[in-house]
Design goal:
By secondary structure, the protein is of the alpha/beta class. The chain contains 12 helices and 16 strands. An 8-stranded mixed beta sheet has the order 1-2-4-3-5-16-6-15, with helices on both faces. It has a 4-stranded antiparallel beta sheet with strand order 10-12-8-13, with helices on one face. The longest helix has 22 residues. The radius of gyration is 24 Å and the shape is elongated. The two termini are 19 Å apart.
Length: 386
């Protein structure tokens, strides 16, 4: 079964919703207009309950099925990115310096499409909880919604989410059991030495050689400390020091992003990172302060739910349109907080050729929306059949 006929019938409406959202992007937790638009559509559809103001601007909406049964959770993220849009589209962002460069406008639209269908047909038992989440890009809105108790409050027993992916054929679903996206940690190291004239380095304690030594040694974490079978990324992403060619600076600082899949490896990398910085600080005679921020955990799919989700995806895309044993991604996702508490599955949905995610020329492909909406709808009907 391909895209459901009634979802295909209102696909033009979905395009209108998506382009409206694209024109009015909002950042982090401040998704006020987006949430108001979503709530308005849900009221039009006749969903049974709309709970607003969760994690500031998040929404959980409930659709009752026919008869008793469990509650399945479907999640879409709503926030945009601080990027100036370069698509040149008629529906381009009207907010300077802010755009939907990751397709969350499309994710929200797909879940709204599923909501419209499910509210009209109700060919399932139990309930479906529609989770519209702010602050995926920054702030961890998923963690906040979990902390505010949505899973227990609404009795959600399993959770699912979709994310679009460019350069993958339109309508193709990609997922994998177990870890699918990495944990992400952010580290800042501040070094303090003794500044002075560049011509008299012996009177100074230069933090720049210390930073260079640390940065070089930190690369040995992945190559010499961690088992080669455990994927790890330690990337230095910022280095800052100095103001002039003849001044040895007093301070220097650098930042890193760390990506891992297993908690044991995550803690091993943290320990070695701190040991290397402390050792080099002592060797170079500088002081070092480390701010090691443990961010989103790894996104880990429950194997059984992944098999089930892939089976549903095959109804939409066909056998050849689903890769259920894809490789892991080193990106991160705060849907991981929901998967820590409930079994479920995170999938990618191909949207064809185009600019990559987080690029100023990116735009969600509206032709992908009916595939995602159909997947969500059939997931509910298959998981909780009449």
């Amino acid at each position: 079964m391909p895209v459901l006929n009634c979802i295909a019938d209102f696909a033009p409406e979905m395009t209108e919703w998506r382009r409206h959202l694209h024109q009015h992007p909002e950042l982090s937790f401040a998704c006020h207009k987006t949430a108001a638009f979503v709530a308005g559509k849900l009221r039009e559809f006749g969903v049974d309950e709309i709970h607003e103001g969760i994690a500031e601007t998040g929404i959980v909406a409930i659709i009752e099925g026919q008869g008793e049964g469990p509650t399945i959770g479907l999640r879409a993220d709503m926030d945009a990115l601080p990027i100036a849009e370069e698509t040149g589209a008629e529906h381009a962002s009207t907010v300077p310096g802010v755009m939907h460069a990751c397709g969350h406008d499309g994710h929200t639209t797909m879940l709204l499409g599923a909501a419209k269908y499910l509210a009209e047909t109700r060919r399932f038992t139990g309930r479906v909880a529609l989770i519209f989440q702010p602050a995926e890009e920054e702030g961890g809105g998923g963690e906040v919604m979990v902390r505010e108790g949505i899973l227990d409050r609404f009795g959600i027993g399993a959770v699912y989410a979709l994310h679009n992916t460019p350069q993958v054929p339109l309508g193709r679903f990609v997922t994998t059991p177990g870890p699918i996206m990495a944990a992400v940690d952010t580290v800042r190291v501040d070094l303090t030495g003794k500044g002075g004239h560049g011509a008299y380095p012996h009177d100074c304690v230069d933090p720049i050689p210390a930073a260079i030594g640390m940065i070089s040694a930190l690369q040995t974490i992945a190559s010499r400390n961690v088992n080669p079978l455990d994927e790890v990324v330690v990337s230095i992403t910022q280095v800052h020091a100095g103001t002039a060619s003849n001044i040895i600076p007093e301070t220097a600082w650098f930042m890193a992003t760390v990506r891992t899949f297993r908690d044991e490896v995550r803690m091993q990398v943290k320990r070695r990172f701190e040991e290397i910085v402390a050792g080099h600080a002592a060797a170079y005679g500088v002081t070092a302060e480390i701010d090691y921020d443990l961010g989103y955990p790894a996104t880990v799919n429950e194997p059984g739910k992944t098999v089930f989700a892939a089976d549903v995806a095959r109804e939409v895309a066909g056998e050849a349109g689903v890769d259920a044993e894809a490789g892991r991604e080193m990106g991160a996702e705060d849907f991981s907080y929901l998967l820590e508490k409930r079994p479920g599955c995170y999938l990618f949905l191909g949207q064809g050729q185009g600019a990559g995610l987080h690029h100023p020329a990116y735009d969600f492909n509206d032709e992908a929306a009916p595939f995602g909406a159909t997947f969500f709808a059939r997931l509910v009907e298959r998981a909780q059949p009449l």
